Amino acid sequence: MVRFIFRRLLQVIPVFLGTTLLVYYMVFALPGDPIAALFGERQPPQSVIDALRAQYNLDQPFWVQYGLFIKNLFTFNLGVDFTQQPIADSLARAFPVTAMLAIEALIIQAVFGIAFGVFAGLKKGKLFDSTVLVVSLLVIAVPTFVLGFVFQLVFGVQLGWAKPTVGANADWGNLILPAIVLGLVSFAYVLRLTRASVSENMNADYVRTATAKGLSRPRVVIAHILRNSLIPVVTYLGANLGGLMGGAIVTEGIFNVPGVGNKLFQAIQRSEGPTIVAIVSVLVLVFVITNLLVDLLYAWLDPRIRYDQ
Amino acid sequence: MRFSRTSKALGVAAIIALAVTGCGGGGGSNTNSSAATDPNKVISAYSNEPQNPLLPANTNEVYGGRVVELLFEGLRAYDSDGKPVNALAESIETTDSQNWTIKVKSGSKFTNGEPVTAKTFVDSWNFAALSTNLQNNGFFFESIEGYADVSAVTETTSADGKKTSTPAPTAQTMSGLAATDDQTITVKLTQPEADWSLRLGYSAFYPLPSEALKDSKKFGENPIGNGPYKFEKEGAWVHDQSISLVKNPDYTGPRAAKNGGVTFKFYTDPGPAYTDLQADNLDITDVVPSNALKTYTTDFPDRNSTRPNANNATLNIPGYNPNFQGEAGKLRRQALSHAINREEITKVIFNGTRTPATEFTAPVLDGYNDAIPGSDVLKFDAAKAKDLWAQAEKIKPYDGSKPLLIASNTDGGNKEWIDAVANGFKNNLGIEAEIQPFAKFAEVLDLRKSQSLPGLTRAGWQGDYPSLYNFLGPVWATNASSNYEKYSNPEFDKLLKEGLAAKTPEDANAKFNKAQEVLFTDLPGLPLWYRATPIVWSNNVVSAETGWNGGIRYFDIEAK
């Protein structure tokens, strides 16, 4: 077990170096001087621009820039962004917001997705099942930004149930609208995965045995059918959490959520290499850790899975 | 120059928003605008994260600029028509436009109690101009004698030919600037400049408390000013979220706050701000998203305003393009200008938020003249365009092997009007023309600086201070800082200089408009239109308006 975790963590190193190098290079290759672009039509004295270029190491060749960035990263110095704010501070502001949003969305999609999926799977072919299938198909087909705008206008502006945007007041209550929008698409997938898995396991031998030995229906469904059906769902949710943590650029944009997605979007607009790579670095870690957790969850869900060989 | 490049990214999305918003405003008619106003109510306004610490001489972009303007008070301020009025200045006098004597009002203080004296101004200006302090707006002091010494740089060329300039001032203070007593500033300029005092209301000239000069970066996080507003508390700037300002009760100048405070909420996109306004979750915005330009007057009946401001757009024609050189080139530039239907484009594409240009400056400025000799070239006239083009063909045939490109960044929604202009060229002149799109403004700027754009370039200018010269000097004078296409005409330069040396503003403006006649003959750029800034406000606001530069006059907003 420990060896397994250790081995997985070791894999982080090449993944980390590879992604940061790639992303750093892509930002580097963007045309246009990002410093000059900060000033628009009227440029400040050249010495100001040159001093800024030097501050961000933009006057250095690529390998020096990247080397300095990695060196600073290992001394936990992420540097400052183009607004002269420490990148570490802005990440510390953005990540908790996105984490709240992601967790809220994950809970919504997991709870509702699994619940509806189980019911649909148990009553396969019945009215409830077909309705749920059609609705989930609809949710998958409609792009997130459409859902976002519709929710914002209906619930935020016309009905006034929630504030149309989040802005500075990012708490669980205010994030509910974007969380629903964000969770909806994955909700449909979770539902369909659970349904398929449940309906497959329903006829398994162990289910028949469990029913035959006189266990109550809820016990059979929860402890036997559901638990065994969860592996694909958990895999999906795990991968999805990583994606959600990456900041939902579209959803965060529509609802003005000051999270990672918005930060990343702005950094890309400004060609702010250090900020982009810093965010990506953290995301790599998030992905690796969530995938590791998912792998560990497998063992709990299915004791036949062993890690140490 | 404060310039906003940020632009709608999710714009595409909002077609749906448009469809739904139609029924959004329902019944929100303005019941009675004479409703009791609440002078202590705090209003919320659209903004975004400022790019620099909040120092007047370092802030040259729109989101930081609007905060700095409310936090500080300079020698002069601009009224809503752009006319400078004295604020902290008791009097500003000169006999020769070169030596100025400014009397500062006594008894004025920063919010930390430090008095504002003549010396405060002198120290602040020297700080801003000194090149080692790396202030973005340092060049605003370039007219003062001794600026060359404090702003001096050394250029080094590295092995691969890249030039780097490093500050190397030969003096710490400008020799032409002195505080002779607590209330008197004397300024000596390197040459007479009749319009110099007009710029004293610009934020670069604001006074700074001594604390700012010690550690400007730290100061810029929690600035202390002398303006109509102050920071609500230490740390009122919550990064990536908001800046909260409250009324400064000790302020006595011409811009007294009519509301209790302004909270700037940050949005990375103007779309959500517009939605917030519809739900009264935000009180005012000066950026109406492009997809709402057709509907904002019906979405916000009686709660919108669109006032022209000192801002123009041009299409620059680089002199290095062989098609536009010599006598034939001159005729072709005129033909291009006649082939643009400014009237129609401003109406159809911009929904009236632009007005067709009649000259090279802007109509809100003192001295503006819409009938400068030569300005006929801006009228749409297909027949004349064809005729001029044909004449040029006789002198030197047009090289049409490549289409005529019009370079622009397209992240800010420029494509529509450029397509329309290109179609005008195609239909009226029979040449191929198309947009040369760039994802980012930075790319266009780089290519403009290195003179490697093959065709025309979109350019624009927003006034720093309300003066004709500010639209002509920095843009079209030989080797001027923003003259990227390197236009040069000694006649034009001479007239500008004469204008600056004129005894009265009227004489100066006459010379500047004479200089514009040269521009109309040469047509280094085609004036397109002037911008008006649409603003909309919530049910919590009684009235609001924009000033000469298009910025909202936040202190004038009355809330209820």
TrEMBL record, chain A:
Ranges that cross the membrane: 12-30, 99-120, 132-155, 175-193, 233-255, 275-301
Presence of the UniProt keyword Transport in the record: yes
GO cellular component: plasma membrane
CDD domains: TM_PBP2
Subcellular location: Cell membrane
Residues of the ABC transmembrane type-1 domain: 95-298
Superkingdom per UniProt: Bacteria
Topology term for the membrane: Multi-pass membrane protein
UniProt cross-references to InterPro entries, sorted A to Z: BPD_transp_1_N, MetI-like, MetI-like_sf
Keywords tagged on the record: Cell membrane, Membrane, Transmembrane, Transmembrane helix, Transport
GO biological process, alphabetically ordered: transmembrane transport
Principal localisation: membrane
Membership in a protein family: Belongs to the binding-protein-dependent transport system permease family.
Entry-linked PANTHER family: DIPEPTIDE TRANSPORT SYSTEM PERMEASE PROTEIN DPPB-RELATED (PTHR43163), DIPEPTIDE-TRANSPORT INTEGRAL MEMBRANE PROTEIN ABC TRANSPORTER DPPB-RELATED (PTHR43163:SF7)
Protein name, as recorded: ABC transporter permease
Organism: Paenarthrobacter nitroguajacolicus
UniProtKB/TrEMBL annotation, chain B:
Record field: transmembrane: none
All residue ranges annotated as the Solute-binding protein family domain in the record: 83-482
Signal peptide start-end: 1-19
GO MF annotation terms: peptide transmembrane transporter activity
InterPro entries in alphabetical order: Peptide/Ni-bd, SBP_5, SBP_5_dom
Organism taxonomic ancestry: Bacteria, Bacillati, Actinomycetota, Actinomycetes, Micrococcales
Name of the protein in question: ABC transporter substrate-binding protein
Keyword Transmembrane on entry: no
Domain of life: Bacteria
Keyword Signal recorded: yes
GO CC list: ATP-binding cassette (ABC) transporter complex; periplasmic space
GO BP terms in the entry: peptide transport
Keywords, comma-separated and alphabetical: Signal
